[in-house]
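Please think about what follows:
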Amino acid sequence: MACGFGLITLLWAALYLPNLRTSPSWYGDEILTLDIGKALSRGELANRAVYCTFNAPTYNYQPGFAWCVGWFSRLTQGDILGGRFLSTLVGWGTAAAGFWFFARKFGLSIGLFYSFLLLGYAQAIVHYRWIYPHNVVGLSLVAAA
């Protein structure tokens, strides 16, 4: 089982960490999430931080995720790299939780197949590198299994 987690971590690091600050190109929603997160992590209710996380019907992102993005961003002096690193960790967590579930239920090979399929899918690579709070929902669903 530990070897499986090691393989997942190696694949994740190879696919998700290189050029994380610049690839893919910055996306408008992730910049807003980053700015809201930085404001919330400083205890400021600026830049629509409260409106967008609690009241807006068009931008109802989870304030907890935005707050965590802000703290990770602060580790990199406010850079997008910190928030994107958190998002890649969510991707790793989703792959690891799924591996743990499938490996126990169906065997190591099925667990690895699930994780490699998830981590290697081109759209997953792009979306887990962007600052998307939606990815936390996927992690929660897989972890609940």
About this structure: The two ends are 18 Å apart (CA to CA). DSSP finds eight helices and no strands in the chain. The chain has one domain: 2-144. The mean pLDDT is 90.
